[in-house]
Design brief:
Elements lengths: L5 H31 L8 H12 L4 E4 L8 E5 L6 E7 L12 H18 L6 E7 L7 H7 L8 E8 L10 E10 L15 H14 L9 E8 L10 E10 L2 H22 L2 E11 L6 H13 L18 H7 L2 E7 L9 H6 L3 H23 L1 H9 L5
Parallel strand pairs: 3-4, 3-5, 5-10
Antiparallel strand pairs: 1-2, 2-4, 6-8, 6-9, 7-8
Helix pairs in contact: 1-3, 1-10, 3-10, 5-6, 7-10
Length: 395
């Protein structure tokens, strides 16, 4: 039976639009409030509190400190164990440039969708949660919550990211964050240079080696770094030097292949300069995004029913990394894109301004509507949910 056919579809969509219209002024206020008070990764205390206070007013039970992270939370409503739907609310801002990734919009979309969906279905028929996930910008929050079993009860997770495009999905790159450290021996650079072993020279040679192998990089392989330590004074041969690199690839296998090339480049530089080198992996490795085709197809169909046309762009264009990659391998996950304007790119001051514009406010309404309708179809069609779960392929 087509849940979206004829008069029933018309009535459902208009009822949901009415719910979101009534919520929209306060959702916009919430989004702007969060943007005015940006908090960086793992410091999102105020953001957590204003989100939880908002959800509490609509009958959601609140648990702060989820998964041992002080700024994480789970807000839930419903009495059934299944279907269980998790809407993801990202919270952290970027250092110095605030909510230039639009997490204020993302969070408002998820909160609006969860509340709207909770008003469409009986509490005995579903379990609906908003999960506040901190520290997306450093790739920490979602993997930590996964490790502590926060997402274990859920059948599906979903969110929509503020964007200049409308897309059901986009691929993401696997990511390792590494410290490349060289240790040598200090000496006076003018009087006894032969006594030294220059750690900075070793590091610079390793960077040149990495640049030298770029011709071998496969599509979407990336190696970008900065020197974080280079010595103390020009007349002292440095005994320690360090670079910080992000290493990316389109698959986990290619990420490991690239890491082997990086290791060879670093060790070759150490051997040539008489220094010692080590590579230290930092934080969680971020996975590429697993695209559950059945779930994406459902979202695309919802867009079609609402006459919202997807942007014609390759899902490989402009791809980065996110800690939602791990979640996408744990359970069926949507990470969609809702347009809030056209003339800014994420992680810029221009995008921060765009994320509190009138077009972003309209984006909150659209994103919440589409995510709520997607959730409704999952709840009302157990067979569809079963197909989506069967299409999941863990790493």
């Amino acid at each position: 039976m087509d849940l979206y056919s004829g008069q029933k579809r018309y009535l459902l969509e208009n009822r949901l639009k009415g719910i979101i219209k009534s919520l929209l002024p306060s959702l916009i206020e919430l989004s702007h409030n969060i943007s005015k008070h940006p908090e960086v990764a793992l410091k999102e205390y105020r953001t957590r509190d204003v989100m939880c206070e908002y959800l509490d007013k609509y009958g959601f039970s609140i648990k702060k400190g989820a998964g041992g992270l002080e700024t994480a939370f789970v807000a839930s409503i419903g009495k059934a164990k299944h279907p269980a739907i998790a809407y993801i609310a990202e919270m952290d801002a970027l250092p110095n440039i605030g909510h230039a990734c639009g997490h204020n919009v993302n969070g408002a979309i998820s909160i609006g969708a969860a509340i709207a969906l909770s008003r469409l279905v009986e509490q005995n028929n579903a379990y609906i949660s908003v999960i506040g996930t901190p520290a997306e910008e450093i790739g920490y929050g979602k993997p930590e919550l996964i490790k502590h079993g926060v997402f274990k009860p859920y059948d599906v997770a979903m969110m929509s990211h503020a964007s200049t495009k409308r897309m059901a999905y986009r691929h993401m790159l696997a990511l390792k964050k590494i410290r490349i450290r060289f240790k040598g021996r200090s000496a006076h650079a003018a009087t006894y240079p032969e006594e030294g072993r220059d750690a900075l020279s070793g590091l610079i040679l390793s960077i040149n080696n990495i640049n030298g192998i770029r011709a071998m990089f496969k599509p979407y392989m990336r190696a970008n770094g900065i020197i974080t330590r280079g010595g103390e004074a020009p007349n002292i041969i440095p005994d320690f030097a360090e670079a910080y690199y992000f290493i990316r690839a389109i698959t986990m296998d290619e990420l490991e292949e690239l890491m082997q090339w990086i290791k060879q480049a670093v060790q070759g530089a150490a051997q040539a300069t008489g220094t010692r080198a080590e590579i230290i992996e930092e934080g969680y490795t971020q996975y590429p995004f697993y695209v559950n085709k059945n779930l994406v197809s459902l979202y695309a169909d919802v867009l079609d029913t609402l006459k919202l046309k997807q942007t014609e762009v390759s899902p490989y264009q402009g791809i980065g990394s996110s800690d939602i990659g791990q979640l996408s391998y744990l359970l069926p996950t949507l990470h969609t894109y809702t347009p809030i304007g056209t003339k800014a790119h994420i992680h810029t001051p221009a995008f921060r301004r765009l994320a509190v514009s009138s077009s972003a406010d309209k984006g909150i309404a659209e994103g919440a509507l589409v995510l709520a309708l997607t959730g409704y179809r999952l709840i009302k069609n157990p067979g569809l949910l079963k197909q989506i779960k069967q299409a999941q392929k863990p790493i």
